[in-house]
Specification:
Two copies of one chain form a homodimer.
Chain A: H1 3-30, H2 37-55, H3 59-67, H4 74-91, H5 95-117, H6 121-146, H7 150-158, H8 164-190, H9 203-216, E1 224-228, E2 234-237, E3 240-245, H10 252-271, H11 287-302, H12 305-318, H13 329-335, H14 353-369, H15 377-389, H16 416-435, H17 438-443, H18 448-457, H19 467-475, H20 482-494
Parallel strand pairs in A: 1-3
Antiparallel strand pairs in A: 2-3
Helix pairs in contact in A: 1-2, 1-3, 5-6, 6-7, 8-14, 8-20, 9-10, 9-12, 10-11, 11-16, 12-13, 14-15, 16-20
Bound molecules: zinc ion (2 copies).
One zinc ion binds next to helix 10 and helix 11 of chain A.
GO molecular function, one term (chains A, B): carboxypeptidase activity
Family (chains A, B): Belongs to the peptidase M32 family.
Catalytic activity (chains A, B): Release of a C-terminal amino acid with broad specificity, except for -Pro
């Protein structure tokens, strides 16, 4: 057996361990009664240890060296590169740093739950300092091994190939037009009349509607399910994708848009090519590309006026309200495109969301590079919120720099993915519009050509090309913010 | 660290792997969409390999030898003995035999699904011959290591301490009175008028009723759940017990009695002592004792007249049928104690069930000991069915010797557990009746003293004493068939 084949088998084995983790993790979030948590956490920690042992098995170094000398097809070369990337990510950190990180992260996150509620920045900052210190050590090690800058070395974990130089360019462009765009949209929307549909919307009916919409969006129920969890997510494995949502009896749109969002993530997973199953080359390209698929479904498709013409009658039927004008497609379109600056990122609309992301990016970049310290965060947060969204968070840590979970467990470099996803999605849609009349297709209830495009240009490529190449092959150009801007202007100012 | 402690940690680790297996197995049966099956089976097979590697780790032999020389408390001595028993079970068979068994079992079982439907005994028997041959090899190896006879060595896997000599004695006693008892019961019931409640009984209402009854039976929903699967079972782990049922819109009693049965299994698991969690000493004593708990709940408690007085109004309320005389406690009692000889074991009532088990026991015992061959099975089956239940299965393999799944995968030695469970349950109930007025307690809706007795005498003992000792400590005598007979006479002839 070639060393390349041995590596393939090894990574398929790792993916089987990841499968067990995905299902037990889904169960923990969606099914498990509370009393099962301790034993579950212990069982999953054991699994993580076994995964780590396998992912860092000492023989792998030799296998990679040998495989690199074997005669391989171009596809195998790429597959090998992706296996090696995965191996290096797992191998670079010394075990004691991994453990220290895990402990500090758990501690910080656990305390954060109550500290956030109590607005206790000082206490929180003591834990966060430790987390940042360890993240800096990690960044230093990864930077030395990859030749990247420290923050870029972390960014690379989530968005391979993306750099601070690139992000600074993209985000400064967004910053140059975003505040004034928000202002204009707010002015325009001030004169629009929108009615809020009055609840209750029974959960069972919301569930039926969700399943119906998922089917229309091509979700394959033979290879996945929809359930409920406190924090909605897309989990499971490509042949069995588990998405979740959270229903609110008084508002059906948030759960429904959440379901559409997760359906986008799910279709990417379900669409990954079977031939590379279990191998890194067959996995989703990056967090940003993943988010581009969920945002394509949610923002590019579902919140558009033509799509609301599909959704509105489905909703009216599901809730048996054929005469409720609040459920008209016109009103639902207005409702689902409201723009309002707010404190909380996860509640933000499509237009203000990038401001939240850019703010976090700028702070975490400088934090990891050592240009600022944890103690500087609140003031910077307040300054940037005021500058980008006109809102001050002075003294309000709960709704300011303590609102997110990401930093508590040391996930620095993740935030940019959200806005990269929005930009990728807009660029993909612009490319699709050059090939077909999207609005007509939607009005004809014929989404298949759109899905085919995504399948061909994104899903079936998995990680076989770089993000850069994927963008160029799919859209003819590298990522740029122009399409995102055009999309926002078109939707929020012209219509 | 002592070697004893090392062993404890090792077995706790094994129990964490078993946890992952239990949850992913539950998911596969109760949640997984069909398209997820291949990847799931591969992931679980990988887990089985890892479990086997850990369970047969080469250092364990030395650890056991060292631990046996350490100064241990009496409890530790027992715990060590149970760990060693588990280790020996896993270690005795050579790897190639384990693999051959697994392959032959899968092949036989897979083909059996269609062969059973087609009544194709000849084709089936070719696969079964291979399975029996491997089971005989296994039995031979286990017999040599334990000093037991071949069949006893397999029996010991499920019912440690039980022997053919003992079973022959118990079962020949049952055989001496069972056929005539069945005859008498049939005569008596021939004059009774029973009405079948008319459906439909909506699934949602059956589900509510099930949950309600489970709560009254003390099922802890903080540490477990109820779901649906094709073949009902009790799975999960002690702190998170997953039971399943299968609803039929036209008949609520079968699902409900199934739920009560699985609740008995579940309470045993939930009641196992926390101090021994993850260790063999802390596991259920045997398959027979496990079945005794489910049958205690189902047969001793739920199908009794006083309990039907609790169930009937709950059912009437759940289905909103306060005036349906078919849902009266008197009618439901009659309905749930019907006796009718039939071909199918899993559909059998409490009285005819032992006949099905004894028949299988006698055949598998002789098969493993080499006194008969696979080709002899159909004739023996027909002869025994005719003798015990007055039904001929000549030429009808589908409803005869091909009806069960157990032999297809080589689980010889398991069948006796069902009837042992029924006898243990009757003996436990007889002992409880000496201490308290069970019928009065049920009528007062005060089941707690009964549960406390089970908890003290069975659940909290786990595997810390032998089955024999457990019986003697709980009931003052060794297992005997007399209590089971008394129970049947009392319920089916006297009332
Ligand atoms: Zn997302
Ligand atoms: Zn049972």
């Amino acid at each position: 057996m070639t060393f390349y084949s041995k590596l393939e088998q090894h990574y398929q084995k790792l993916s089987r361990l990841a499968h067990l983790n995905a299902i037990c993790g889904w169960d923990q979030a969606a099914m498990m009664p509370e009393g099962g948590n301790q034993a579950r956490s212990e069982a999953m920690a054991e699994l993580a240890v076994m995964h780590h042992e396998q992912a860092t098995a000492p023989e792998l170094a030799d296998w990679f060296a040998q495989a690199e000398r074997e005669t391989l097809t171009a596809e195998q070369v790429t597959s090998l590169k992706e296996m090696k990337r995965s191996w290096q990510i797992n191998n670079l950190l010394p075990t004691d740093l991994v453990e220290e990180k895990s402990l500090a992260g758990s501690k910080c996150e656990h305390a954060w739950r109550s500290q956030r509620a109590a607005n206790s920045w000082h206490e929180f900052s003591l834990n966060l300092k430790k987390v940042v210190e360890l993240a800096r050590r990690e960044a230093q090690i990864r930077a030395e091994a990859t030749g990247l800058s420290r923050y870029d070395a972390l960014l690379d974990l989530y968005e391979p190939g993306m750099t601070t130089a690139e992000l600074d360019k993209l985000f400064s462009e967004v910053k140059s037009w975003l505040p004034s765009l928000i202002h204009q949209v707010r002015e325009k929307q001030g004169t629009e009349k929108v009615s809020t549909p009055a609840g209750p919307f029974p959960i069972e009916q919301q569930k039926s509607l969700s399943v119906d919409v998922m089917s229309k969006l091509g979700f394959d129920f033979h290879h996945g399910r929809l359930d409920v969890s406190v924090h909605p997510f897309c989990g499971g494995v490509p042949t069995d994708v588990r998405i979740t949502t959270r229903y609110d009896e008084n508002d059906f749109t948030s759960a429904l848009m959440g379901v559409v969002h997760e359906t986008g993530h799910a279709r990417y997973e379900q669409g990954l090519p079977a031939k590379w199953r279990g191998l890194p080359i067959g996995e989703a390209r990056s967090m940003g590309i993943h988010e581009s698929q969920s945002l394509f479904f949610e923002m590019q498709l579902a919140r558009s006026e033509p799509f609301m013409e599909i959704l509105a009658p489905l909703a009216a039927e599901a809730f048996d309200r054929s005469n409720d004008s609040a459920l008209s497609s016109a009103n639902l379109t207005l409702l689902n495109t409201r723009v309002k600056p707010g404190f909380i990122r996860v509640d933000a609309d499509e237009v203000t969301y990038p401001a939240h992301v850019i703010l976090r990016y700028e702070i975490e970049r400088d934090l990891i590079e050592g240009h600022i310290e944890v103690a500087d965060i609140p003031e910077l947060w307040d300054k940037k919120m005021t500058e980008y969204l006109g809102l001050s968070t002075k003294g309000n840590y709960t709704d300011g720099c303590m609102q997110d979970i990401h930093w508590t467990d040391g996930s620095f470099g993740y935030f940019p993915s959200y806005t990269l996803g929005a930009m990728y999605a807009a660029q993909f849609m612009a490319a699709i519009r050059k090939e077909m009349n999207v609005d007509n297709l939607i009005r004809e209830r014929n989404l298949q050509p759109i899905f085919n495009w995504l399948d061909k240009h994104i899903w079936k490529k998995a990680s076989s090309v770089s993000t850069d190449k994927l963008l160029i092959e799919a859209t003819g150009e590298r990522l740029n913010a122009e399409h995102f801007r055009n999309h926002l202007v078109e939707r929020y100012l012209k219509s």
